[in-house]
Write a structure and sequence with these properties.
By secondary structure, the protein is mainly alpha-helical. It folds into 3 domains: 61 residues, no CATH class; 99 residues; 59 residues. Helix content is 45%, strand content 4%. It is built from 8 helices and 4 strands. The protein has a two-stranded antiparallel sheet. The radius of gyration is 40 Å and the shape is elongated. The protein starts with a strand and ends in a 9-residue tail after the last helix.
């Protein structure tokens, strides 16, 4: 469990200075527990909007302890002030060593598990704003979110394989098995919640459900249009009807080239060398048209 450096006034003496006391956890700090119960701070100890906790915060520069004064250990001060050293010069008595409870006692006490206190707002009472409360998505929403993500990946991969005309990836690769669903339902619920909060801007579990439903609808209907466009991009160039139209256009262009060449030869405006070059170009165009099957390859 991470340590908690107390900012509220609990101090201890270290190297002749009073420094903030480091608790084993936040729950060990009585001031934090009190402020949390009064809804003045969040779970990280930060002041809630509209709350003033400056009177509880300890000064950043603690007053030094005189060399003759004993060094107190783990002393606590009232909120807003620092605890001073004992005015007596006699050292403090040694703290008795705590006896570790036996395994039977630990099992009987629930292994020392501490549960977070939850306050319930009475009906009709004004509670904190909806966006500032701590919430987490439901198990079904978490699983459905990752099913949608895997569905997007599957659709994208299948579009790529279809474009390159290779066998598609097996559907089992993108199907969540019971083990994966259990992980998404339990361990990854906080991760799913953070993604929906920070990426998609969800502010409540209901809004997160609507976002996941919208993504599911986009996967079901939006990808249909992409599949149709890709289908035409792949198969339209192979259409026989389109090939005939292209061949008729090439044949018409070839006839225009022949007509322009005959007009240039009879006009007398071009030299024999220029006419020879134009004739060779026309023969090359006719050779290419003849190599293609269909109307373009028919003799003129």
């Amino acid at each position: 469990m991470p340590k908690f450096k107390c900012p509220y006034g609990h101090v201890e003496a270290k190297n002749g200075q009073l420094v903030p006391l480091v608790h084993d956890s936040r729950a060990r700090c009585s001031i934090y527990v009190k402020l949390r119960a009064e809804r003045k701070v969040d779970i990280f100890g930060r002041a809630m909007p509209g709350q003033d906790i400056s009177g509880y915060l300890v000064r950043s520069q603690a007053a030094p302890i005189s060399p003759g004064a004993p060094a107190p250990s783990g002393s606590e001060s009232a909120p807003g002030g620092a605890a001073g050293a004992s005015p007596e010069s006699t050292p403090a008595p040694a703290r008795p060593k705590e006896q570790k409870p036996s395994l039977r006692e630990r099992l009987a006490s629930g292994l020392g598990v501490r549960y977070r206190e939850v306050s319930v707002t009475p009906p009709g009472a004004a509670g904190p704003p909806a966006g500032e409360t701590d919430w987490i998505v439901s198990e079904d929403t978490s699983v459905r979110f990752w099913e949608v993500i895997f569905g997007f990946i599957e659709t994208l991969v299948n579009l790529i394989t279809q474009f390159f005309e290779i066998p598609p990836v097996p559907k089992d690769v993108f199907t969540l098995d019971p083990g994966q669903q259990f992980v998404f339902r339990t361990a990854l619920r906080p991760t799913t919640t953070n993604i929906l909060k920070k990426v998609f801007g969800a502010r409540s579990p209901e809004e997160a459900d609507r976002i996941v439903a919208g993504l599911s609808g986009l996967l079901g209907f939006g990808m249909v249009a992409i599949k149709i466009v890709l289908h035409f991009m792949i198969h339209l160039p192979k259409s026989p009807k389109l090939a005939k139209w292209r061949q008729r256009r090439e044949q018409a262009q070839l006839e225009r080239d022949r007509k322009r060449f005959e007009e240039a030869r009879t006009s007398g405006k071009f030299t024999d060398e220029q006419l020879a070059i134009a004739e060779r170009n026309l023969q090359e165009i006719e050779r290419r048209a003849a190599s293609r099957p269909g109307p373009a390859g028919a003799p003129a």
